[in-house]
Amino acid sequence: MSDLDGVRAQRKAQTRARILEVARELFETCGFSAVTVAEVASAAGVSVQTVFNHFATKEELFFAGRVPWVEGLAEAVRSRGRQRSALTALRSYLVDWVRADIVAAATEEHRRFVATLEAAPALRVYERELYHEAVTRLTKALIEAGSQGWKEESGCRRGRDPEDVSIIASLTASVWLAAIRALLLDLRSAPPPAPGTAAVAAVVELAERILDGLQNGLGIVSGEHGSTSCGVLTRTESSEPLAAPRQPAPQQRPARQMSLGSGGAGRLR
């Protein structure tokens, strides 16, 4: 990068920071819905087009720098170490997210952020869209992790269908994020615990218990207890292939009569 390019990049970053600073002050003072992009541009000393060059929408401007989890969840899975499973990396990120949110909740800046957010329906809608984007990104990252697992577990007879990985990845991303998001939304509506207190530790412990329950449940569908996917999301590169479980003999049941409805579909009686 030339010196001229470096100066331009620095000026661009300074302009972006100035727009963010002014916008947040206006949103918190006047309310998100009452502030226009033109007013933000005027207060920042730039054109409306300059604002849109940095932020596609007013909602994006509000959330800029405040939602690292949109990309961070997927990145945590992709950047995990060779000896770390996808679920371990995801779990660690989620617990850290809860802990960081608790710490932030005690600050005045966070309280103003939440107050502005709750007062603007458009922001709540956009926040849900960000959440769904995070789920989509995380699902793709988990599918990639699972697909790598298929190649490493070529000796495993169970669950070699990539569709199994896609289903498990989608369920994991959706359910785990929904659980943590519900916890964080509950915390948002309650007085925040003081940092460093037992209450903070209790919330973090609750998040870990929630994830424990979800991961134990995932074992049933991810192959840890003998189902179809070979547990590819819970395995590391050093894990040994799992042997296929012995299937129990089918139980003999008394014959039942079958009656046919008018549509020809059989019903057991």
UniProtKB/TrEMBL annotation:
PROSITE patterns: HTH_TETR_2. The keyword Repeat does not apply. Residues 13-73 form the HTH tetR-type domain. SUPFAM superfamilies: Homeodomain-like (SSF46689). Residues 229-269 are annotated as: Disordered. PANTHER family: HTH-TYPE TRANSCRIPTIONAL REGULATOR BETI (PTHR30055:SF234), HTH-TYPE TRANSCRIPTIONAL REGULATOR RUTR (PTHR30055). This is TetR family transcriptional regulator. It comes from Blastococcus colisei. The lineage of its organism: Bacteria, Bacillati, Actinomycetota, Actinomycetes, Geodermatophilales.
